[in-house]
Amino acid sequence: MAEEKRRLGTGLRALLDRVGNNFSVESEPVNIIEEERTAVPTDKVKIDVAKIEANPFQPRKVFDETGLAELAQSLQTQGLLQPIAVRQVGERYQIIAGERRYRAAMLLGWSEIPAQIRDADDQQMAELALTENIQREDLNAIEKATSFANYLEMFGGTQEDLAKRLEVNRSTVTNILRLLKLPEQLQKAVCQEQLSAGHVRALLSLPEWEQIDVAAKIQAEGWSVRETERFVQDLLQTGEAESPKNPEQTWNIVDKDGNTRAVSSQSEQVQQLEQNFRHCLGGMKVKLTQTNEKGKGKLVICFANHAEFEYIYGAICEGNRAVG
After folding, report:
1. d(Cα 140, Cα 279) in Å, to the nearest integer?
2. What's the whole-model pTM score?
3. d(CA 273, CA 286)
4. Which among 36, 70, 99, 248 is annotated as catalytic?
5. What is the distance between the alpha carbons of residues 180 and 225, in angstroms, rounded to a whole number?
6. Per-residue pLDDT reduced to its tens digit, 230-267
7. Whole-angstrom distance, CA of residue 5 vs CA of residue 3
8. Are residues 131 and 162 in contact, defined by beta-carbon separation less than 8 angstroms?
């Protein structure tokens, strides 16, 4: 982790060098991200905050209000120790680095803010935004993935090219981009911190409908990432898997007299139902689960090869065709 942060910090320093040799950077790379509390360069100017706008390539869509309030309090007591960096576009300015400082200054009602004006093209702006934000733990993985995808669409190149420009491993870029293959509702769950990137990354090898199904279980039962990975691995290998939390479900069973009674999912009655299905299907693995109190559930039939699938198909489909 320390090596990764060092490499990322080096990438940011190199990018800043491209847009201005006088940009002051401390030797410890994390300070670039954590408000760069260094001596103020002598070439700073004060710019009207009304003329400043965000980096158009900024991947961060949500800024933590509590963190901004704390930063604003620091600015009020200590002042702005490191000016923001901007580029001029016509009569206005776009932020190259330091949007959190800019937003904190706005909270304080500042009319002007110290800044350094630098030359930067669109590609450099995009790279700076990516590199500055990729280290921040509060930037969610979907925001990172979207910004990577947008960069590649706008400026071309391969994932390896992007990794080299950001000075990160190619696998980092690849793994982040893979998250965009998730269903939209799971991407939204990551953005809303209902699921972690580790959870949804473990689901990528499943079909979409099963990703959604397993994600619901993760949220309902509070699985860890490791528990999720084990569950998915078992599911892929055997076609079935036990919940890590192993919750006891309740079934409503109607007996021959028409009376309804609740029984445990681990009861002999449910096991007998599964056994009856297995017998009718020639010994295939069968799993019964119920997902709500109204009786909604799932019957999972597992097969190991084409021959077993053909047997199941014949027993269910051809049998029904014969009856009809």
Report:
1. 49
2. 0.52
3. 10
4. 99
5. 19
6. 899 888 887 777 777 655 455 555 555 666 655 554 55
7. 6
8. no
In whole angstroms, give the CA distance from residue 298 to residue 194: 25
How far is Cα 310 from Cα 306, in angstroms, rounded to an integer? 6
- Alpha-carbon span 299 to 109, nearest angstrom: 61
C-alpha–C-alpha distance, residues 267 and 250, integer Å: 9
Please list the alpha-helical segments (H only) found in 98-239: 99-107, 122-134, 141-155, 159-166, 170-178, 184-191, 197-203, 208-221, 225-238
Annotation marks residue 193 as catalytic: no
Domains of the chain: 2-177 (3.90.1530.10), 183-238 (no CATH), 250-323 (no CATH)
Q: Which two tokens stand for residue 107?
A: 């909270």
**pLDDT tens, 122-164?**
888 888 777 766 665 556 888 888 888 988 888 888 999 888 8
